[in-house]
Specification:
Low-confidence stretches: 411-416
Shape: globular
Strand content: 5-15%
Number of strands: 8
Structural class: alpha/beta
CATH architecture of the largest domain: 3-Layer(aba) Sandwich
Number of helices: 20
CATH superfamily of the largest domain: P-loop containing nucleotide triphosphate hydrolases
DNA sequence: CGTCCACAGGAATGACGGGCGG
DNA sequence: CCGCCCGTCATTCCTGTGGACG
């Protein structure tokens, strides 16, 4: 069969088929549904806590925590959107701001984002954090408003920077005479409390709302409700739905993941020309998601991180199971030489290894070998095929995959 | 039971490109 | 245009340490 006719067939099959989706947008995790099943309690609690702002009183600060995909963000946005509508209806001078701390990245950008929400524009950079904070205070005071600031993924901010911004925000009311600020802190990490200054903690958690993971039954309900909107009638088998819920329940009850799984499974089914999404499609979607995650992570690494990956790869291939820091640095040095790059210091490579560990591309464990020192044993968490696929668009790196480091042949110190 | 290896990982500091206010 | 500050990446210097060896 000629290529042209193959392609013709692909196109015509695409055009003539109805597909499994009715509206795939509702499966995206930024989609905010009309109803949030099994979160009635949290909605009520949060609603009760923020309600005082309608009467122009400051509401308590709230600390919201729970694992990823348990509905924290959705519930917060859900409640705030409705509160905003009510406030407009009653003419209450309330202002809202939602910032994702991980996406914003730095204290400065978080603060800038808060400023923008009260129509105070600040430069991208150039000012000190303190200066921006002063301007914010001044502008807010002049605006005479009750403000609610929701800081999502606040744990990321505290762990990578400090709780300084949080501290400043919790005591900003002391400096305001005409306005008031309340904070909603949303954290994925339950242990965040341990990292916080006690003063910040007590002030931030005037109220606390906990989001437990969904169990398989609850996930099934959530998925069923979305699937109703997302798929054509009968295009999703009950078995597939249940499997999807079960898989996500096994993984900390993460609803976001469950929705992803369902969407990708639908795409797999469409590509295969199936009219119904089956359990098999779900299984395939599971593999596909993981595969894509790894490829993307690998492809987006900096050059030096890629070289570290390659170094570990060479070592694991050459002398067995795990590599240690010293060896990795040796091989890494040689690879840098091959590319005529000046190598980074061992200290720096050490933190790169830690970052790769956090990404799940490597597995690093500190071990003591007694007399023979203390080091890290490092294992690769990705296959050769994946590395090849991810590095293929850079032929310098492609060449290094098959390169045999000289430093490996001369000393065969393979110790466990 | 102390020593000492081979690093881990914290702290301070610097170089650099970007961007502001004045 | 200058002086200043930003965030990011990297280096330098450093103190800390689990446990096999002697």
């Amino acid at each position: 069969m000629k290529e042209a006719s193959v392609l013709d067939e692909v196109f015509s099959r695409f055009l003539n088929r109805i597909g499994v989706f009715k509206d795939r947008e509702v499966l995206r995790h930024d989609y905010l549904p009309e109803r949030l099943p099994h979160r009635e309690d949290q909605i009520k609690r949060l609603g009760e806590t923020v309600a005082p702002v309608l009467k122009e009183a400051r509401c308590s600060n709230i600390f919201v925590y729970g694992k990823t995909g348990t509905g924290k963000t959705a519930v917060t946005k859900y409640v705030l959107t409705r509160l905003e509508a009510k406030a407009r209806e009653f003419g209450a001078p309330v202002s809202f701001c939602y910032v994702n701390c991980r996406l914003a990245g730095t204290e400065y950008r978080i603060l800038a984002s808060v400023c923008n929400s009260i129509q105070l524009s600040v430069p991208f950079t150039g000012l000190s954090v303190g200066e921006v904070f002063e301007r914010f205070k001044k502008a807010l005071n002049a605006a005479k408003k009750i403000m609610i600031i929701a800081l999502d993924e606040v744990d990321v901010l505290v762990k990578s920077r400090s709780d300084a911004l949080l501290y400043e925000l919790t005591r900003i009311n002391e400096a305001l005479s005409q306005s008031k600020v309340s904070i909603i802190g949303i954290s994925n990490d339950l242990r965040l409390k341990e990292f916080l200054d006690p003063r910040v903690l007590s002030s931030l958690s005037e109220e606390e709302i906990v989001f437990r993971p969904y169990d398989a039954e609850e996930l099934r309900d959530i998925l069923a409700e979305r699937a109703q909107m997302a798929f054509r009638d009968g295009a999703l088998s009950e078995g597939a739905l249940r499997l999807c819920a079960a898989l996500a329940a096994a993984e900390h009850g993460d609803a976001r993941r469950a929705l992803d799984l369902l969407r990708v499974a639908g795409e797999v089914a469409e590509r295969k020309g199936a009219d119904i999404v089956t359990e098999e499609h779900i299984r395939e979607a599971e593999k596909l998601i993981e595969h894509n995650r790894v490829i993307e992570a690998l492809a987006n690494l900096t050059l030096h991180s890629k070289l570290v990956i390659l170094s570990v790869f060479q070592l694991v291939r050459a002398n067995g199971y795990r590599a240690v820091t010293g060896e990795i640095y040796e091989v890494y040095n040689e690879l840098c030489g091959e590319l005529a790059l000046t190598p980074l210091t061992q200290r720096r490579v050490s933190t790169l290894v830690n970052e790769l560990d956090a990404l799940g591309l490597l597995n690093a464990q500190v071990v003591s070998m007694g007399r023979y020192g203390r080091t890290k044993k490092i294992r690769l968490e990705v296959t050769r095929t994946l590395i090849r696929e991810a590095f293929s668009n850079d032929n310098r790196l492609g060449r290094l995959i098959d390169y045999e480091p000289k430093c490996l042949s001369k000393d065969a110190r393979c110790r466990n």
